[in-house]
Specification:
eight-stranded parallel barrel
Length: 271
């Protein structure tokens, strides 16, 4: 199925309607104006200004160092490019875990200063009060369960989550809680496909998987991974549609050769 051109602007209601009619939801990350413009014109439903910007854009090992100011900078660049997609912004580590008042203050800054449409945060019962307070201010919230990269030092590894029954049950109960609280959707990251199916079928709101199996209501990938710009990140769930790292490197070498050999600029490429 191709892009639904009838839809002029994706809202949280449109996302819900997609689940209701079993149409898969597409989400990709974006951190800057130029890439967001391409992805939006291509017709992706949701653009996530992920805190993966910490890894992809800034070269940090984890998502923890990125700040609220930096997320707002990325988000406002993305919002300026977008005509159709729903723009969701990650609340970065430290901007919502402290207490619900901090969570609301961070959210208000994101919404006011970037013009984004919704926020995403990681966790279940632990962040219940923050979710309630953000929702009470009228801001849509996307949850994030399974592998939650902001807790990497608690878990110690980026391996598949909720393989054991107790963890799977906790994930299911957190998913139901997020729905009850009023989240409009949630990411399910790196969990067994069977659990992704079970959670997705148990909920009315849409799930968006990244390594969550084919039965999630939508799929998300980090754009730089999907395009092969990141170099050595090749988890099983990732499909690399291009190897842009190599293409860009070879093209740059071509440019260097052209300048050094006096081929560029030629007669037509000057005033
Ligand atoms: O930050 C991010 O890119 C994410 C996706 C992996 C879902 O949270």
């Amino acid at each position: 199925m191709s892009v639904n051109k009838e839809i002029k602007r994706i809202t949280t209601h449109v996302i819900q309607a997609m689940k209701n009619r079993s149409e898969k939801i597409t989400m990709l990350t974006a951190y800057d104006f130029s890439m967001a413009r391409i992805l939006d014109e291509a017709g992706v439903d949701v653009l996530l200004v992920g805190d993966s910007a910490s890894n992809v854009m800034a070269g940090h090992e984890t998502t923890l160092p990125i700040t609220l100011d930096q997320m707002i900078y990325h988000a406002s660049s993305v919002v300026r490019a977008v005509k159709r997609a729903l723009v969701v912004v990650d609340l970065p580590f430290g901007s919502y875990q402290g207490n619900s008042k901090i969570a609301l203050e961070s959210t208000i800054r994101i919404m006011k200063e970037s013009g984004a449409h919704a926020v995403k945060l990681e966790g279940g019962a632990e962040v219940e009060e923050s979710i309630k307070r953000i929702l009470s201010a009228g801001v849509p919230v996307m949850g994030h369960l399974g592998l939650t990269p902001q807790s990497i030092y608690k878990f110690g590894t980026y391996t598949v989550r909720a393989k054991k029954e107790a963890e799977a049950q906790k994930l299911m109960s957190d998913a139901k809680l997020l729905q009850e609280l009023g989240c409009f959707s949630m990411v399910l990251e790196k969990i067994p496909a069977e659990l992704g199916k079970k959670v997705s079928e148990s909920l009315d709101i849409p799930t968006i998987g990244i390594g969550g199996g084919p039965d999630c209501d939508g799929q998300v990938l980090v754009t730089h991974d999907m395009l092969g710009i990141t170099k050595d990140f090749k988890p099983r769930f990732l499909r690399r549609y291009l190897e842009l790292f190599d293409t860009i490197k070879e093209t740059t070498q071509q440019y260097i050769n052209d300048v050094k050999s006096l081929d560029f600029p030629n007669d037509k490429e000057q005033y």
